[in-house]
Each structure stands twice: as C-alpha cells, then as structure tokens.
C-alpha cells in the first residue's frame, strides 16, 4: 500500500501543488487547512508522514507537533516562511525531523519526504532480525531495532524518527567516526549548509536525552573537523 502523507497548510495553492507532486510519486494524500483539522486527522486516520505549516488558524504548527509527539513518532517535516536559524532550531527542538523554508521547489519536498520515510520505515524493515540480534546495547543504552524503541537503564526514552535513525546507525558501529552527511543520509544524496545546522540540532537533542550531562558526553563524541562517533566511557 502507498504511504499516506498529511499536508497541513492554509494556503490552498501550496496544498494543491504538493498534492499533485506527491500523488504523481505514488503517495496517498490527506489535507487540512488548519491545525485543528490536522490534529483530528492525525488522531483518527493512519498517517505515515506529516507536512506541517507553522502559521495556521486554529492551532499553529508548533502546538500541533507537541500534541503529536505525545502519542506518535512518525516523521514530521515543517514547511514555513520563517527562515531564521532560531525558528528552525525551535521546530527541531520540539520534535520536527526536518524544516524546509518557503518558497521551495516541490521536487525538493518530495525528496525530503522520500528520505524521511525511508529512514523511518526501512531501518530494520523487511523480515527483520532474529529477536536476540535485534537489540543493540552500549553502556546503559538498549536500542530495540525491531520495535524501534530506546531504553536507558530500563527506562523508555522517546525519539523522533530522525533521532532514531542517527542513533541506530552509530550504535551499529560503535567507535566509527561518521560525517554529518553520512548520518543525515538523504534520498537525493545532496547535503547542504542547512542540513549541517539541522544535524547539529539533532545531535544536541540526542545528547539531552541519553547523556547524564550533555556538556560532558559519555556516549556521542564530537571529532573536530570530521563528525561524530558513539562509544561508552564510564
């Protein structure tokens, strides 16, 4: 079955354009022109990924993301005319997986959708590993690749789709240094300065969730000029 994408955007022309491109690429599309309707759709219907505008009537995109993250970790891509770094950081901090600024090329949006869905649904997809091999353990962390769940000392930790993808890739190869581009792997293979800033926010959020002291990380280490690696230090 095709993936279902929700477009929550109060601009009818943008919704129609994105719907056309997404459907031409095989996606099923649901639409909402305000935050309240978008929230209702997310609660009542199956949605694989959400494209959310920030400035919407009824409920803004930031509030909608916060509500969604209480019950779901599906990929969320923000679409916004706000292009300041502080706006992007806020969106990522509250749970968005990606942030695209308007005006945008609809083909770029499709590429980001493809990449986000592939990261979320294809890590550990297919038949899946044997139960004993489906868990990665490092220090106090245990990552279940089959159920896509993280625990620290047995306590569940909520991750966004992108945070899960990054952590899984690193925990599969502890000690290996990954560049930011390798960790933020995109469907179109393109990596920009904007992606670089996005990646740093995701790493920062991961540290806040898994480190006892994010300023002195025991797990995710920065290798200056190269990227990041994960290891465990007592």
UniProtKB/TrEMBL annotation:
Q: Which GO terms describe its cellular component?
A: cytosol; protein-DNA complex
Its keywords, alphabetically, are: DNA-binding, Phosphoprotein, Transcription, Transcription regulation, Two-component regulatory system
Q: Which domain of life is it from?
A: Bacteria
Give the annotated DNA-binding region, as residue ranges: 133-232
Keyword Ubl conjugation among UniProt keywords: no
Residue ranges annotated for the OmpR/PhoB-type domain, each copy included: 133-232
Q: What is this protein called?
A: Stage 0 sporulation protein A homolog
């Amino acid at each position: 079955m095709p993936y279902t994408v929700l477009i929550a955007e109060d601009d009818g022309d943008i919704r129609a354009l994105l719907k056309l491109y997404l459907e031409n690429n095989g996606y099923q599309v649901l639409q909402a022109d305000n935050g309240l309707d978008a929230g209702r759709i997310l609660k009542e219907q199956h949605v694989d990924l959400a494209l959310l505008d920030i400035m919407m009537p009824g409920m803004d995109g930031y509030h909608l993301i916060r509500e969604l993250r209480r019950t779901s970790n599906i990929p969320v891509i923000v679409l916004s005319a706000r292009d300041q770094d502080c706006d992007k950081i806020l969106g990522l901090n509250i749970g968005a997986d990606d942030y695209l600024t308007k005006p945008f090329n609809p083909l770029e949006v499709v590429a980001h959708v493809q990449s986000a869905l592939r990261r979320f649904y294809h890590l550990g997809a297919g038949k899946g590993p044997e139960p004993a091999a489906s868990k990665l353990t490092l220090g106090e962390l245990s990552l279940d690749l089959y159920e896509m769940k993280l625990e620290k000392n047995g306590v569940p930790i909520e991750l966004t789709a992108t945070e899960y993808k990054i952590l899984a890739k690193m925990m599969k190869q502890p000690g290996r240094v990954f560049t930011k581009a390798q960790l933020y792997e995109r469907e179109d293979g393109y990596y920009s300065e904007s992606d670089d800033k996005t990646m740093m926010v995701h790493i920062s959020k991961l540290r806040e969730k898994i480190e006892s002291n994010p300023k002195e990380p025991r797990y995710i280490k920065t290798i200056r000029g190269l990227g990041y690696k994960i290891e465990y230090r007592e």
